[in-house]
Design a protein that fits this description.
With about 170 residues, the protein is α/β, with parallel strands linked by helices. Helix content is about 40%, strand content about 15%. Strands 3-2-1-4-5-6 form a six-stranded parallel sheet, sandwiched between helices.
Length: about 170
């Protein structure tokens, strides 16, 4: 049954795997509590850190990387919203973060390498999360309870701020 355009599901839907672009609350909210249990998000307190998801990889090739000065503005906004100073970068390009971002900020480090699951949980447990314009960032923000900072020009995330109507989601130009 293809009911993705209407967002309706039968009362007892059969188990299914979702593959594709899922940054839509109507798809995620039906599984949120189950995903939070699977990833044990509720079992751990949030870390007093601002985590920044820096996606490079394919974004570099596609010209979709955020500029360095945007990260600085976003981190300043997260710091003012939370009072937290420590910044930790989680990225698929740790050396770029170490060389380009860490030297520009006080109290900033690069997270140790992790697999996708541990990185997702690490991001979700942050006191504040500065998101890249990616599904991975969105899910971390949605699974956790951080103050979320996104770019107002991020086409994938911008519209979700209005849909969620959540004051913890902050836009930064």
């Amino acid at each position: 049954m293809d009911d993705t355009s209407s967002g309706t599901v039968p009362e007892q839907p059969p188990p299914a795997w979702w593959i594709g672009y899922w940054q839509q609350v109507r798809f995620a909210e039906v599984s949120l509590s189950r995903f939070r249990q699977w990833f044990r998000v509720d079992e751990m307190p949030s870390d007093e850190v601002i985590r920044v998801h820096v996606r490079r990889g394919d974004f570099t090739r596609l010209g979709r990387n955020s500029p360095i000065d945007w990260y600085e503005r976003a981190i300043d906004r997260a710091r003012s919203a939370t009072g937290v100073e420590l910044v930790e970068f989680v990225s698929d390009d740790r050396s770029w973060c170490e060389n380009k971002l860490v030297p520009r900020l006080s109290d900033a480090v690069v997270a140790p390498p992790g697999d996708a699951t541990s990185d997702l949980v690490r991001l979700a447990r942050a006191r504040s999360l500065v998101c890249s314009d990616s599904t991975f960032s969105w899910w971390a923000a949605y699974l956790g309870d951080p103050v979320v900072v996104i770019s107002e020009t991020a086409p994938n995330l911008r519209d979700l701020v209005a849909e969620l109507d959540d004051r913890r989601w902050l836009l930064v130009s």
